[in-house]
Design a protein that fits this description.
By secondary structure, the protein is of the alpha/beta class. The protein has one domain (19-132): 3-Layer(aba) Sandwich (Hypothetical Protein Ychn, Chain: A), CATH 3.40.1260. It is 40% helix and 20% strand. It is built from seven helices and five strands. It has a five-stranded parallel β-sheet. α2 links the parallel β1 and β2. α2 runs parallel beside α5 (78-88).
């Protein structure tokens, strides 16, 4: 029996001698009525188990999560826990300023790093892998 492709991904662990890989997860979807954001954050947590430097970027409708941190209200309490754990592990959580402005969201009091589109472009450009949701 041939191993599944998912097994191959998770058995390819980095060792001490390997270079750190920069992995960026880009979340474009709204956290409302979808498990995609929770799945993206959970996957990002899994990526920290190997030798990866993980950054999570919230753009477009994904920015709603930065100002409405009440995931239990929208039915996905794991989102808050995943975000807190990512922060504790030293992962950078970034929200795009232009997406917030387009949606009329304030960038004051946001618990995430607010960066402009150009800065986010540099983060993505400097990544070894980019995963979009």
């Amino acid at each position: 029996m041939r191993p599944s492709r998912y097994v191959t991904i998770f058995t390819n662990r980095a060792t001490k001698g390997d270079n750190v890989k920069k992995v960026t997860t880009v979340i474009r979807r709204s956290p409302f009525n979808s498990m995609a954001v929770s799945d993206a954050l959970r996957m990002s947590l899994g990526l920290t188990l190997t030798n990866n430097k993980v950054t999570v970027v919230f753009v477009e409708d994904g920015v709603y999560l930065s100002v409405f941190p009440a995931p239990d209200v929208i039915g996905y309490p794991d989102i808050k826990r995943h975000m807190e754990t990512l922060k504790e592990l030293g992962c950078e959580l970034v929200v795009e300023k232009e997406s917030m402005e387009t949606r009329g969201l304030p960038d004051r009091g946001v618990a995430l790093n607010v960066k402009n589109r150009e800065e986010i472009g540099r983060i993505i450009e400097g990544s070894d892998r980019v995963i979009g949701f």
